[in-house]
């Protein structure tokens, strides 16, 4: 049922936020979330905190964002999940291309290494200067 609800958000401009905290999300629902990100012109905030995301999710999210040049996402929280450095790096590159910019990026309590955190900080510093 949840996958169908999330899928409907992709084409419905009424919903601007998708919030999930402390709930494990299955692969079918995650696929629908990615589909929504790739299609929605009204989704502004996406929170998937402690949702059991796998390390490859940031790469998939980056790909979904690249398919939607009209995305208006300005807040993204993926805290308390297992994320890999390369996927997060690719996600940040894609986030920097968002039309309205980014107000919030929460990647706290993830499995990023210190090298990944430093790379993320450098990317975002470059983003704020342009």
TrEMBL record:
InterPro entries: LRR_dom_sf, PP1-Reg/Actin-Interact_Protein. This is Uncharacterized protein. It comes from Ilyodon furcidens.
